Amino acid sequence: MPLAARSTVRRFSEAYLSRTREGMWEDSRDALADLDLPGRERILDVGCGTGELSRILAEESDAEVVGVDADPALLEVAREAAGIPVVAGDARRLPVADDAFDLVVCQALLVNLPDPERAIEQFARVSSDLVAAVEPDNSAVDVRSTVSREQRLERRVRAAYLEGVETDVALGETVADRFEDVGLADVSTRRYYHRKEIEPPYSERSLRAATRKASGAGLADHERELRRELADAEYDAIRSEWREMGREVVEQMQAGDYRRIEVVPVDVTVGRVT
Ligand SMILES: C[S@@+](CC[C@H](N)C(=O)[O-])C[C@H]1O[C@@H](n2cnc3c(N)ncnc32)[C@H](O)[C@@H]1O
User: Fold this and answer.
1) From ligand 1's centre to the CA of 156, what distance in Å?
2) Quick check: is 117 in a domain?
């Protein structure tokens, strides 16, 4: 989760990105079809973080993939783990020449910017052909769990988070309008459902996630946004119920009974520079 909000750049930990991207694009890459990856020569992945999307782009194309991010620590991971060249920079002022790439793409970047249109303008400036954004609709996440209160609590926390967060984390299909506003043509959107399933036998990561729930750490990830929306007593009550819920998850896991499915809708919007 975000480490802390610092000026206008929201920061993320390597562990958060690895945890939340697990399994993404492994089941199907159909929603990436309009990026025409096999036909690309130079791709810029803006807000690449640890290179989670960069790796997919490299696997699906013969292009040179370059990553840009505002966070030098994440870039270092992308350089080493994804094996891509990286450049430090702000998406709103890309340190890249006009028309230098034939695809400029981001994943989960626009939802973290107070002014996503500024970044889209930059994407259109540095692309000679395609611009794409892969953005989650965080308002439409669905959670099913064998711990019944997990579903209810997550819904409650998500609603408060959506109210408390300072950027539009549910951009969804509105990205298409923003693409058209900056003059991109042939704009299309495809939806991908990132499905995360926990069931026996439990992975190390699932066991760690359960421990995080029981300790309240999972909730603390969002504390800043939640406290903006909830009174102190309300936050404390939710935190205490959250930890109890976490303990129930751990108990169900010990008995091999715990199952959880989370589905995050992700919109892939593509436009062409005219
Ligand atoms: C949610 S993470 C997504 C990372 C990666 N694209 C992925 O999907 O795993 C958002 C990324 O955007 C970066 N970021 C946030 N604001 C930025 C800005 N103004 N310019 C460049 N990168 C930014 C963060 O450092 C972070 O790596």
Assistant:
1) 26
2) yes
The answer to whether position 6 is within a domain reads no
Note whether 27 and 130 are same-domain residues. Answer: yes
1 lines ligand 1 (CB under 6 A): no
List pLDDT tens digits, range 47-94. 999 999 999 999 999 999 999 999 999 999 999 999 999 999 999 999
pTM beyond 0.85: the answer is: yes
Q: What is the CATH number of the domain that holds 118?
A: 3.40.50.150
Give 81 Cα–ligand 1 centroid separation in angstroms.
Answer: 16
Going by C-beta distance under 8 Å and a sequence separation of 6 or more, which residues neighbour residue 22?
A: 196, 205
State which residues form the domain around 243.
138-167+200-258
Q: Where are the alpha helices (DSSP H) in the chain?
A: 14-20, 52-60, 72-77, 116-126, 148-164, 174-181, 204-215, 217-220, 223-229, 232-254
Ligand 1 contact via 119 beta carbon (within 6 Å): no
Q: Show the tokens assigned to 231.
A: 């009174």
* Any domain includes 83: yes
Query: Looking at ligand 1, which residue's alpha carbon is closest to its atom 12?
Result: 47
Q: Is the CB of 107 under 6 A from ligand 1?
A: yes
pLDDT of 124-178, one tens digit each? Answer: 999 999 999 999 999 999 999 999 999 999 999 999 999 999 999 988 779 999 9
With 50 as the cut, is the pLDDT of residue 5 above it?
A: no
50 and 182 belong to one structural domain: yes
Q: How far is the CA of 238 from the centre of ligand 1 (A)?
A: 29
Tally of structural domains, the chain: 2
Residue 23 lies in a domain: yes
Distance CA 151, CA 58 (A): 36
Cβ-based neighbours of 236, under 8 Å, separated by 6 or more: none
Q: Ligand 1: does its nearest atom lie under 6 Å from the Cβ of 9?
A: yes
Whether ligand 1 lies within 6 angstroms of the CB of 225 is answered as no
